[in-house]
Structure formats: structure tokens, C-alpha cells
Amino acid sequence: MREYSIGLDLGGTNLRAARFSPEDGLGEARTVATRVNMGPDAVMEDILELVGQVRAEAGPHQRLRGVCLAAPGPLELPVGRFHQPPNLAGWHGFAMRDVLQPRLDVPLYLENDANAAALAEYHLGAGREAKPRIFCMLTLGTGVGNGLVMEGRIFDGVRGLAGEAGHITVDPAGALCGCGNVGCLETLASATSVVVRAERLLTEGRAPRLRTLVENRGLSAALVSKAAEEGDADARELFAETGRALGMAMAAIVNILDPEMIAVAGGMSAAWPLFSPSMLEELRRRSYVFRLAEDATAFERPCRVLRAELGADAGLLGAGLLVFLER
Amino acid sequence: MREYSIGLDLGGTNLRAARFSPEDGLGEARTVATRVNMGPDAVMEDILELVGQVRAEAGPHQRLRGVCLAAPGPLELPVGRFHQPPNLAGWHGFAMRDVLQPRLDVPLYLENDANAAALAEYHLGAGREAKPRIFCMLTLGTGVGNGLVMEGRIFDGVRGLAGEAGHITVDPAGALCGCGNVGCLETLASATSVVVRAERLLTEGRAPRLRTLVENRGLSAALVSKAAEEGDADARELFAETGRALGMAMAAIVNILDPEMIAVAGGMSAAWPLFSPSMLEELRRRSYVFRLAEDATAFERPCRVLRAELGADAGLLGAGLLVFLER
């Protein structure tokens, strides 16, 4: 009997579910709004409802192997407990497994969404050919997500809280982060941080091209990117600063783990031409392996750094895939 | 037949060798001066000579299972190639395995010395009871070494160059490091850095207690530590700065890996009472897991941070032990 899994991606805005099988890939996703304010129990009902719908659609001639839910962190594993999740206000302390597993007759897997996305990118995206032994992904979105895949499997850390590189300090005296620290990577490399810093530029009467562009629309990271592409020097420097922050954090990752590949995902990765030159320069300067690799007699190539390929479905895909990788 | 291994610790000053068995532990070490300036081939002969001596001593009624050499980094593995090693000047590009393995009739294992020390500390020192799933050690000596042990085994990275946390940038505009970067942890947390910074204090006419102490002796990290213990405010601030640098780098490690235990080893760890308060404060501020753990409903305890137990034999012990852990 053919087997499939159900992957779910729980976001602060939308809850999505789709069937997955290694043969057919990801089915069409069902999407409902995440009723964050109704509390976790209401959303757990929505999750079970979606699982029921996908299951009904698949019919009785295929076997459901398991369900995996990818959720925003910080998510303690394996219990699936949220700890002050910035995108799920009021869910602090809620432990998903206790509520969901008893209502399912198949195994339930829980995972941090950035980890699930990294798993998909490793197996089906940027990592699919090289199958890098140590793979790291940074997802530049509302925040900065991070996932690690080692020897083909997610590296979760002791409590599921590995992969928080978005909270590496890159500027010890920098801006306040949502986590309470100052100068985290997230304060300089998330889409949110681009908007916040662009607002400051506009307040200071700088970024002339951006000022013209913004007159007709609301300010967004994409618009700042457009201004930079059109030559706005202040907007360009803003992305260069993002690149330096990314390079600094990547250097810490490289110094600790000596990985084989780092992929950059998320909406912000579209601005790759704007931030990657300063990112790579900073990485080369701040990472021991990269410095050593500058020598001609050193190893063939240091860690590869490249754009992710999968886009917004990576978390959902990773959730579906994870069920097939677990024994 | 009883089995033993031979562990060797190749340092910039001394080369040491000892037999090891799980039953009897580490035998008495034989030590010769490392003839760094005679070049790697001469030292390889010394290594083989020491192996022969230890083997003769063990006699024919015990079986030699393997030989493991712990050497200073950067050491590319598994080939054992040095890349501009700061403590072995002129050895750049030398690949040990090619020279040593053909002259041995037992398996040869090569490892970075900080990794070998971490392995010993995990199995026989600070980690022996808790057996932390993810264990990290920082060795504060001439430089800052770093080793990772995951699930009981050394984590080497893709090329053997994982565990270079000594080169994490903790002060983006800091002092020049031997690696070519500025503001590495090593520039603020090695014994060398304590002496360099203390010299600066003395040049500036500060650190009065240290000035008195140093009149009778040469300046050393131990003397700066003594001055701090005796109340010298400038010397105390120097160690507080070391602590902040350590806390910053540990926070990066915690944010990336979510480890269970971090041990601090090396000569400088004797100054624990002087640097650990600011280290732990900075770690709490800069690490997401530690911040979350401040909440009473969060997980029981975050990563444990403590002093290593084994002392200067850790590298040698780890080398001997490694042979028994490899299959």
C-alpha cells in the first residue's frame, strides 16, 4: 500500500496543510487563517480538522504514515512546548504534543519551522546534489530563522533550541531585539529590520530615491531593495550593513561547526545581489577556515554559501518529508 | 589478551607519549622537547621513537590496539595536514598521516589537541556522570582551544576544522589576532592576552598592585590574577573583560547548538572566580535559551557551565581514549 504523510506549517498568519509522498512530492496545500488570538486550543482543533480533510481526500487506499507539524520557535522538543513565541502571542508554555498526539492514531512529529525548511532544502533544494554533511540554513523573513542538518537529519540540540543563529550578537552595542538582547543578527538582517532602518533614514531626510518611491506605496523591504537597485546610496549601505551582519554570524557558525554548505532563504534573500558582497567579505575576514583557504595550498574550497531554492513551501515540504526520514 | 593504546600529545614545546587502557588509565608519560625548528620529519622520527619505547615497556603480552596523536590546529582531517599552525612555525602544508601510518603496523588516529582534551573531559572529567549529549569545551592557554563532543564522539566538522570558537569575533573593532582577524575571543581570553593587556596597563601607569608584584618577577597571567585577587581594580577589570568575551562567544555556541554542558579548561581557568561572574552575566544576556530559562515555567535548567577537571593531561588522555572509541 502506498504511503503518504501530512505536513502542516503553523505560522503567525496562516496555517497550511498538505499531503506528501516521496513519489508525488507535495500535494496542493489547504490554508486557513491562524486564529492566534483564540488561543492554542482553538488552533489545535483547526489542525485536526485540516488533517481530517487531507486524509479524506487521500482516500482509504493509501496509508497515512504520520503527521508532522512545523511551528515557529522557540519550541522545546520533543514535548512541543512554546516559550514566549514572538509570532504566537499568548501561547507561552503551551505543550502541543500532549493535546495533539492523543487525538491522532498515527505518529506525530513536531519541529521548529526553520529546521523543517532546512531539512527540505537539504534533501530537495540547494543541498540535493552535494548532500553536504553539515548543512546550515538562515531564513531571512519577519525574523531570522536558522536550521541545521547534519548527516541528513535535523540537529535539534538538547531541548530543540539549536538553530537560533538569528540571536547571535553581531553588534555588541546594537539595537534592541525582540528577545531582550541587543545587536542580534535579527536586528540587522530580518525584513522587519530593513523597514525599521529605512524608516530611520527617511526620518533623517536621507535615502532620496526611496523617499520618491515610498510616496506612492507603503514602506516595505522590497521597496528599499528597489531603491537600492536604482542607485540610492543610503539604501545600498543599509543592505551592505545587513551583509556584514550576516557574514559575522556565518563566521561564528563556520568557526564552531566547519560546515560544508550555508544556504540563505526567506523573502529577503531576493536582495542577495545587494547584501552578499559585504556578507562574503566579512565571512572571509572573520572565519578561520576561510582565511586559511585563501592560501593556494589549502583545501580545495571552503564552505559553500549560496541562495536557497525552495521558497515559501520549504517548511511545509520539510514537515511532510520528516515523517519519511524518522524510523 | 589485554589491549592498550598509545596516546601522544604534540605541543609547541613538548612532545609526550603514554600508554593507556580503560582498566589502568594513563601510564607515566615520556616527554621530549619538540624539535619544531628541525622540521616535521625530525619530529615524526621522535614520535616513532617514543611509540617504540612505550611499546617495549608494555611488553609482548599485551596487544597494541592503535596510536593516536593529538596535535595543535589548524589540523585538516583525516589527512592530518597542518595549515599555518601558530605553535609549529614552518609546518604549513605538512600532512602527517602519509608519513606516520606506513611506519606503523597498527591504526593511526590523528586529532586536534583541543578536541582530544574535550573527549577526555567528557568521558573522564566534568562530563563523566552527566554524559551530556552535546558537550563543548574551551581551553584557555597560550591560545583558546575548543572541542565539541556529541553523543560521546568528537565532532570534527567537514575538514576537521570545527571547534575554532577561539576565533569567534567578540569585539568587531578589537585587537589584531594571530589569525589575521580582529577582536577574536583569543585576543581577550588567552593567557597571552592577559599578559599583553596587563603590559598595556603598566605602560599607562595603572594597576598599582600589579606594578608592585611584578618588580620581583616577570609578568605572567598568574601574577595578574594574584594582583586581581589582592584587590587591584585594573587587574580585576581585565579579568571581567575576559569574562564578557567568553560569555559572548559561549552565547553564540548556545544559540547555534543548544548544548547541555560547557566546560572551561586550561591554565587560565584557575582564574575562574575572577572571570566567571561577568562571563555568566554576558551569557545570560546574549543567549536566547538562557533568557527563556529565566522564566520560572521554562525548562528546568539551561546549559551547565563549569570548570574542567582533568588539567594538563587531558589531551594525552583523550588521545589514548580515542583509540578505544573508534571501531
Low-confidence stretches of chain A: none
Biggest sheet of chain A, in brief?
6 strands, mixed
The total of helices of chain A stands at: 11
Distance between the termini of chain A: 18 Å
Question: Helices and strands of chain A: which structural class?
Answer: alpha/beta
> Largest interface, by Cβ-Cβ below 8 angstroms: which chains and how many residues each?
A-B, 53 and 53 residues
Helix content of chain A: 25-40%
Percent of sequence in beta strands of chain A: 15-25%
| Secondary structure tally: strands of chain A | 13
Q: Radius of gyration of chain A, rounded? A: 20 Å
Name the helix and strand elements of chain A from N-terminus to C-terminus, one letter apiece.
EEEEHEEEHEHEEEHHHHHEHHEH
What is the chains' assembly state? homodimer
Let me know the average pLDDT of chain A.
95
Shape of chain A: globular
Looking at this protein, list some descriptive labels:
globular; 20% strand; five-stranded mixed beta sheet; alpha/beta; 327 residues; 11 helices; homodimer; 39% helix; six-stranded mixed beta sheet
Structure description:
Two copies of one chain form a homodimer. Chain A contains eleven helices and 13 strands. Chain A has helices spanning 40-58, 96-100, 113-124, 186-189, 191-203, 208-214, 221-229, 233-257, 272-286, 288-293, 314-325, and strands spanning 2-10, 14-21, 25-26, 30-33, 62-71, 75-76, 81-82, 108-112, 134-140, 144-150, 153-154, 261-265, 304-307. In chain A, strands 1, 2, 3, 4, 5 and 8 form a six-stranded mixed β-sheet that branches. In chain A, β10 and β11 form a beta hairpin. The model of chain A has no long low-confidence stretch (mean pLDDT 95). At the A-B interface, α8 and α10 of A face α8 and α10 of B.
